[in-house]
Amino acid sequence: MKNLVVIGNGMAGMRTVEELLKLDPEKYNITVFGDEPYGNYNRIMLSPVLANEKTIADIMLNEEQWYLDNKITLHKGVRVSEIDRIQKKVIAEDGTTAPYDRLLITTGSLSFMLPLTGANKQGVIGFRDVADVDTMLTAAKQYKKAVIIGGGLLGLEAANGLMKQGMEVTVVHLLDALMERQLDKPASKMLKSALEAKGMKFLMEYATEEILGDARVTGLRFKNGETIEADLVVMAVGIKPNFELAQKAGLHCERGVVVSDTLQTFDPNIYAVGECVQHRGLTYGLVAPLFEMAKVAANHLAEIGIARYEGSVTSTLLKVTGIDLFSAGDFSGDDNTEELVLHDAASGTYKKLVLNDNKVIGCVLYGDTVDGTWYFQLLKEATDVSDFRKNILFGQAHLGDSGHGDEDRVALLPDNAEICGCNGITKCQIVDAISEKKLFTLEEVQAHTKASSSCGSCTGLVESLLAHTLGSDFETAPSKKGMCSCTEHSHEDVRGVMRKEGLKTQEAIRATLNWKTEDGCAACRMAINYYLLCEYPGYDDPQSRFINERAHGNIQKDGSYSVVPRMFGGMCTADQLRTIADVSDKYEVPEMKVTGGQRIDLFGIKKETLPLVWKDLSDAGFVSGHAYGKAMRTVKTCVGDTWCRMGTQNSTRLGVKLEELTWGSWMPHKFKLAVSGCPRNCAEATIKDIGVVCVDSGYELHVAGNGGIKVRVTDFLTKVATEEEVLEWTGAYCQLYREDAIYLERTAPWVERVGLQKIKDALEDEAQRQILHQRFLESQKYAQIDPWKAIADGDKAHEFQTIKVTG
Amino acid sequence: MNDWIKVAQLDEIPALGARTVTMDTMTIAVFRNSKDDVFALKDECPHKKGPLSQGIVHGTTVTCPLHNWKIELDTGEAVAPDKGCAHAFDAKVEAGIVYIKAR
Ligand code: SRM
Ligand SMILES: Cc1cc2nc3c(=O)[nH]c(=O)nc-3n(C[C@H](O)[C@H](O)[C@H](O)COP(=O)(O)OP(=O)(O)OC[C@H]3O[C@@H](n4cnc5c(N)ncnc54)[C@H](O)[C@@H]3O)c2cc1C
Ligand code: SF4
Ligand code: FES
Predict the structure, then answer these.
(1) Which residue in the set B5, B27, B81 is minimally distant from A807, CB to CB?
(2) Residue B56 to residue A525, Cβ atoms within 8 A
(3) Chain A contacts of B97, Cβ < 8 Å?
(4) How far apart (Å, rounded) are the C-alpha atoms in residues A481 and A468?
(5) A577-595: burial string, b at 16+ Cβ within 10 Å, e else
(6) 3-state secondary structure of A666
(7) Closest residue by Cα to residue A735 from A693, A785, A683, A775
(8) Mean pLDDT for the stretch of residues A82-108
(9) Nearest ligand atom owner, CA of A594
(10) Which pLDDT belongs to residue A471?
(11) What whole-number distance in Å separates Cα of residue B44 and Cα of residue A558?
(12) How far is B80 from chain A (nearest CA, A)?
């Protein structure tokens, strides 16, 4: 085994080791040096510790047992003093040496201490580690007056904590606005008043000249001659990357240890991650980028060698209980940018979005931060927001999610508030799990609490809770999430590689992209199966489909299935109804129901009976209704001009034609259409994936509606004059969605992600529209083979039977 | 069933899939993975009795079709953080025939 030595037992270092152990636990003998005398702890939680909201024990990430369990040698409280690159070993202050094949430098950063006269007195400290917090806690017991130099994030968190410890706290700030790097003036002002209301004092535009006192500090003198008493001074004016050790070893350093996109320093055996590095000219001071770096470095240390770190966009949240504040990106803007602002002083909310070319480039939220993750996502995805900018400030949920009322400010919710309506999980259960089980990501919260793992409508709330509990955006919304735990590659990457390399099987895709598991898992297999069958019509791997799509019926809680035959446009004949009634009698169907999709559902059918039921139905001309599939579902219609006194067009005939065109198509998610005969809209067309509203002069096409978890009204796409045009636009729109959306992304979130403009651009071009429509028709040749008939008549029916044995 | 009981030919069970076997009143799910190893579990998820036979098989686990718990095929144990155990049987293939036996 090779030797890996890690210098620095902090957040970035141990995260890299954890990622490496996940990829290849046997690759290295790992030795870790850390000059702090503990295991690895969550540094960002020092603020809540100072504020009495947490204890040191709560914030430990890896106790010493973890090092033992993973056969890692930990030298705690031991400082490395030299890296010998010739002999490839590190030497510590206490004389310990360790040879390495690969070295990982994660020395973090140091508090920047202003070089003032008197700065070396007792009681003058930074805010960086457990030792600093201990100093503050001890001082708070003996002394009264604390001064914080620096009104940034760290300074305010320190000030808040010391106030909670009973000290009188004054924050001294050089500029006229707090947190000027994260906030604009109005938000900064609101923050200042809120903190003043809590009892914090401020000296704005004051520059410190000297620290007064003998052995211990007694006060400060400012450049303007004024003085103030102080028993404790915390300097929170910034951090400086800690790269002295690396520089002494001759590694190229500028403002940090310079690393490449693979997190390698100029010595290929030496990697560096965390706050000590400089990547593409930037240094970082938040954890989210460090975690991304850790993933990439681990990937290269494990010699998988495919990941690249391309830099991060960061967002900030202030961890002061009772104050909701979020900021990301470039919020000051310039002549080329526009600002959207909502400012309600009375309710204490302020929201500002900075747009450039209709894309969010920056955001500041104060008071109501629940949409922070959403805006941050729009920012990272560079989504064109032109079509919803009118409403964007009201937030993603302005139309309301079903299942949890209008809860928005997570911080203000009572502990027993139900967050996940499907699984009955409360705020307190989620928060406890995050802190006790050290959860960092949405996926981890889903696995441990089940919250947000069913319908997903509470995902935003859970992400906000994560952010609030952890204090930062962490990995809640990386712009491109890994598909599942089998791979780091995102859906877009996988699909891109499949297309570029012409990969035609699941196995080829997993092999090319170095899947961690041999067969994949339920999540990635279903997604890849969809991408393959969309790319290569006719392809299908039934074992990679969810049971509903394998058994062509909805599985019920008792393991039986339901059968929903297709009734085109909701139209039916007496004969058809008679057949359904006969089937129901013959197979003793326990229950029948008219569905919300204008057809009839037969419940409680045993799996072995399915092929028999299907046979009778298909002999009478029925095909599957695909009520079970990520597929085209129904076309809902209203009466139309044949009978209705208000009707403008023949909506039922058009509905039938649309269903004949689209039935059977496999989609990224379920897909529903409707045709209403006039703007009274009795078929509820404006909450469908495609809704047609007939008007006297033709047909309005509306898209991306949703009537389910999150109600969303459609966007207007276009207006056309003839039924033929409706069909062509529909085919083209379906195909664009099929080829572009991520698996399990319904049209509403898809359109919100990519922006309606992109879709209009693609479809308004007549030639491109026709090409898409043709591709849709081609794929339908394979999709419109009725699966029920195929199984009932074919050789797979035996798989629906159970084998009887005696024993 | 303390002796090996013959249940089916291997090729009657789809690879990365399962078939159900009924014996008296019990339903047993017999799985086959991508390496042609076979496993047998009582067809009841420890969570809410979902039919494990209808799940997606990957590696040596099956994902339950009702609420996505993952169950180890050889032991019946739920994969952490979920907790629970499905009753497991011994299973083997000999000369292309699948047998199962009580543990
Ligand atoms: C049978 C039916 C209810 C009924 O008795 O009327 C039904 C039943 C189910 N719906 Fe539905 N939905 C039914 C109409 C609807 C409608 C109304 C409609 O289509 O007009 C909606 C809202 C409209 C919409 O989709 O935008 C609806 C929104 C949902 C959703 C939320 C989708 C969303 O994007 O927000 C889910 C969950 C999902 O798809 O992930 C869902 C899921 C389900 C599932 C499949 C739950 C599941 O995953 O197992 C239910 C199967 C029950 C069963 O045991 O068979 N069902 N479902 C309706 C079948 C319609 C049909 O003929 O195919
Ligand atoms: C009070 C506080 C609040 C914060 N709040 C947030 C927040 O809300 N959100 C956010 O994203 N970020 C926050 N941060 C920043 C975040 O904690 C850092 O970005 C992160 O800890 C950096 O990780 P790192 O591994 O690079 O450095 P560190 O975690 O500092 O780890 C470096 C380790 O290396 C050790 N070391 C250094 N030199 C040597 C040597 N020669 N030999 C042995 N060991 C050595 C150090 O002692 C240290 O333990 C906060 C930081 C502080 C201090
Ligand atoms: S039919 Fe739809 S709304 Fe009713 S319980 Fe099932 S998923 Fe929920
Ligand atoms: S019954 Fe299996 S996961 Fe719920």
Answers:
(1) B5
(2) yes
(3) none
(4) 21
(5) eebbeebbeebebeebeee
(6) strand
(7) A775
(8) 97
(9) 1
(10) 62
(11) 10
(12) 9
In eight-state DSSP terms, residue A624 is B
- Give the tens place of pLDDT for each residue, A138-171: 999 999 999 999 999 999 999 999 999 999 999 9
CB B46, CB B26: distance < 8 Å: no
- Position A409 scores a pLDDT of 59
Q: Are A446 and A429 in contact (CB under 8 A)?
A: no
Size of interface A-B (CB pairs under 8 A): 84
Residue B19: its chain A contacts at CB < 8 A? Answer: 799, 802-803
Tens digits of per-residue pLDDT, A306-340? 889 998 888 887 777 778 888 888 888 888 899 99
Arithmetic mean of pLDDT over chain A: 91
**In this structure, what are the phi and psi dihedrals at residue A469, rounded to the nearest 5 degrees?**
-75, -35
**Could you tell me the CA-to-CA distances from B61 to A194, A228, A474, B48, B54 in Å, in that order?**
53, 67, 31, 18, 13
Backbone angles phi and psi of A228, in degrees to 5: -145, 145
Evaluate if residue A571 carries a pLDDT over 50. yes
Measured in angstroms, how far is the CA atom of residue A72 from the centroid of ligand 4? 37
Answer yes or no: are the C-beta atoms of A18 and A6 closer than 8 Å. no
Beta bridge partners of A74: A32
CA distance A522 to chain B (A): 6
Does residue A573 surpass a pLDDT of 90? yes
Beta-ladder partners of A701: A692, A718
pLDDT at A477 over 60: no
Let me know the angle formed at the C-alpha of B36 by B30 and B38, rounded to the nearest 5 degrees: 25
Question: Residue A181 corresponds to which tokens in the numbers above?
Answer: 């790097």
A162-215 pLDDT tens trace: 999 999 999 999 999 999 988 889 899 999 999 999 999 999 999 999 999 999
Interface ipTM above 0.85: no
Query: Is pTM, for the whole model, over 0.80?
Result: no
User: Domains plus CATH for chain B?
Assistant: 5-102 (2.102.10.10)
Helices (H), A551-588: 574-586
Whether the per-residue pLDDT at A545 is higher than 80: the answer is yes
Rounded CA-CA distance A792/A551 in Å is: 12
Element (H, E) at A658: helix A651-662
Handedness of CA A105, A106, A107, A113 (dihedral sign): positive
- Would you call the peptide bond into B81 cis, given omega within 30 degrees of 0 as the criterion? yes
User: Quick check: CB of B6 below 6 Å from ligand 4?
Assistant: no
Q: What is the DSSP letter of B84?
A: -
Q: What is the pLDDT of residue A217?
A: 96
Establish if A543 touches chain B: CB-CB under 8 angstroms. yes
Q: How far is CA B37 from CA A173, A371, A486, B58, B86, in A?
A: 69, 49, 21, 12, 19
Q: Are A677 and A651 in contact (CB under 8 A)?
A: yes
Non-local CB neighbours of A177 within 8 Å, separated by 6+ positions: A183, A185, A188, A189, A204
Q: How far is CA A72 from the centre of its chain?
A: 32
Nearest CA to ligand 4 atom 3: B67
pLDDT of A407 over the 80 cut: no
Residue of B nearest to A802 (CA): B20
The shortest C-alpha distance from A449 to chain B (Å) reads 9
State whether residue B15 sits within 8 Å of chain A by CB: yes
Residue type, A270: I
DSSP 3-state of B13: coil
